[in-house]
Amino acid sequence: MRLSDIDLRLLRVFKAIVEARGLVGAQLTLNMAQSTVSTHLSELEKRLGFRLCHRGRAGFSLTRDGQQIYEGCVELFSAADRIQNIAASISGSMKGVLRIGMIDAVISNRVWNLPAIIRSFSEHASEVVIELKVGSSAEMEQELIEGKRDIVIGSFFHKRVGLNYIPVFRERQSIYCSLDHELASKKEVPVEELSSYPFLVRRYLNRYNIEKISGNIVPNAFVENMEAHAALILSGRFIGFLPQHYAEALPPHARLHRIPASPSVDYLSTFYIIYRAQGDDNILVRNFLNRVKENLPDEIAEA
Length: 303
Prior knowledge:
The protein is built from eleven helices and 13 strands.
């Protein structure tokens, strides 16, 4: 069966169902009754000639064929967004979809106001749809390379050929424990002593965090995002690095304690806006970058 024989509207419904992990969640995303969502899914399966998913009391799961169709849908609609953006750039109209990727815990910094930049961009381009996704630096960078993201915000320790990097702020990382941890009662902690305690790292900062304490330390836990990182530290079992602005933004009952390591193991990580080298040809990317540059200080500040 050729793609032209399949109703693209049904494929969009199927994609929404998968990303909502079921029909109940998809009805809110699609603004449809659950019975209508179910009818569309059944119609798509009928046209394709095979079952896409299992649904029922056991929960929602994709069949092997359904997984392949979903992956094709992601590529199809990503390509459609790119075509729409190309057409907008050619015509000079501010329409289309701007796909932004970022790592978590960015908006608590006090020196670079991402929400204000998004507001400014949206006021200039009110007909543009903004798609904002949160993920790890590695995941977002890969999606940028593959053309699934137009702009990515995060910390990157290696610059990739074919990508442009604009530094926007520096983030101070300090090592923390819970107030319930035995290190919380110490006024000074020799850096060598830190390696005696269970240590956790974010996967994308793994080697860097370890080298700050000791090249021989073996991490006891890995996380992908800041919320998970803070939760493990607050368990009272682990120590680990957190951005100061994030730790300070947590409510008092979070009971975090900055460890007074001697010498200090604090370090600064630079955050960048990155985009593909040919991204300047995209009118939406160019307009967003103009809003970013309007809000950049003469010197990159520390969050």
